[in-house]
Amino acid sequence: MRPRLLIGGRWTEAADGAGFASHDPASGAVTGWVAEAGEADVDAAVTAARVALTDPAWAGISAAERARLLWRTAELIEEHAQELAELETRDQGQPIGVARGVSVAGAAEHFRYYAGWCTKIEGAVAPVNFPDTVHYTRREPVGVCALITPWNFPLMIAAWKIAPALACGNTVIVKPAEQTPLTTVRLVELIERAGVPAGVVNLLTGGPGPGRALVAHAGVDKVSFTGSTAVGREIVRACADNLKRPTLELGGKAPSIIAADADIDAAVEGNLRGALLNSGQVCAAYTRFYVDRRRVDEFTAKLAAAASALRLGPGLDPATEIGPLVSAEHLAKVDAGVRCGVAEGAEVVTGGARAAGALEEGHFYRPTVFAGVRDDMSVVRDELFGPVLPVLAYDDPEELGPRANDTEYGLAAAVWTRDLTTAHRLAADIRAGAVFVNMPPVPDSAAPWGGYKASGWGREMGKYALEAYTEVKGVWMHLG
């Protein structure tokens, strides 16, 4: 059965019958035919979500029952782990080990983590200056939430939005990226099977059209979006018309600082994983490497050797270490960025071209290491979202904070050092939502996730997501 829309508990084709093909980025083969939601479908989904918001079947259940529904969803994800991992790999391209160990495992963990929060969302009593008056606060659902997800980790990012939204008692409309809708469709089927009432979770697939319509819709109370900074700015402008609340996790250009005292072999291994997870299609990927000049040649040579030795191939092949980029369009964008770097004078140490031979049918790009890079080059300034690793030298540790912060982005950063003073000072100096010391940039359900500057607004995950999905109401009670 081809993927359809879920609106008010009913699986249906788009109102106008429109649809589009989904493709395997490793081969270009069609993996499915997906419904293309239109404005009528958006209106219907918003109406269904608004009805479910106050329906006793959802609004009247206990926090403990909400927790059981989320926990059951986590169990179903784990029961279908292999199916979901293979579907994620066929649709997105990531190696099967990443799909299984990061995407599926992370999705289950987010539902389980927020199941624990359902019974712990509480208000507080505060003393006020009025005599004989008790004041307390309540945390209540924001309302109908539009959750718009990207194509790089579609399953896990859908989970990290849906789980806290439901834990707080909201209803949601999920709109996955048109490039990778299939695991989100399957996730919503599992949520339905877990027993979540009709209309609480609605699904709209399609391109930018239904996303824009959701953001502009007066019946939507909140938007949570993960994607590009350009689209994030567009969403902010649209939300301003009716003052709906956005949470935005946007682009990144994460610096990785390799100090003179760093274990170079460990830094090479960790930075390679931090830069090339999911072929570099990660907002927090390490994408500019500042190396002490005394170690830069050693680091660059070892990084290039390790990158060139990685095995490219289809994600379903267990031997694959680097999968394809998500689409032909994105492949062309990454290649154009590399060409621009060469034109500006950067030296290609390894890579610099799409894969040839048996991999030509897919969207494969060879991991590319640049040397001789300056701070003003496009490969250092622009988010390429691919396997591109520019290496820069530094002479004075005092220059690291300003150089790392010389970007419009501020999502993540890394520091590689054996010295705790260096680690703590740089972690304080760098303006980013997350700083990883001697490790790759992998988020966790219990820790805040989000960025400074053009990397977004607000935080997801951990207890911080409860702020995004609840309103605080003050209640004043005169006892006289």
Ordered list of secondary-structure elements with their pairings:
Layout: E1 5-7, E2 10-12, E3 19-23, E4 30-35, H1 39-54, H2 56-59, H3 63-79, H4 81-92, H5 96-117, E5 133-141, E6 144-148, H6 154-167, E7 171-175, H7 182-194, E8 201-203, H8 208-216, E9 222-226, H9 229-240, E10 245-249, E11 254-258, H10 264-276, E12 286-292, H11 296-308, H12 328-343, E13 347-350, E14 368-371, H13 378-381, E15 388-394, H14 400-405, E16 412-416, H15 420-429, E17 434-437, E18 456-457, H16 464-468, E19 470-478
Parallel strand pairs: 6-7, 6-9, 7-8, 9-10, 11-12, 11-16, 12-15, 14-15, 16-17
Antiparallel strand pairs: 1-2, 3-4, 5-19, 10-18, 13-14
Helix pairs in contact: 1-8, 3-5, 3-7, 4-5, 4-7, 5-6, 10-11
Quick structural gist:
Pfam families: Aldedh. By secondary structure, this protein is α/β, with parallel strands linked by helices. It contains 16 helices and 19 strands.
Question: Which properties best describe this structure?
Answer:
alpha/beta; seven-stranded mixed beta sheet; six-stranded mixed beta sheet; 19 strands
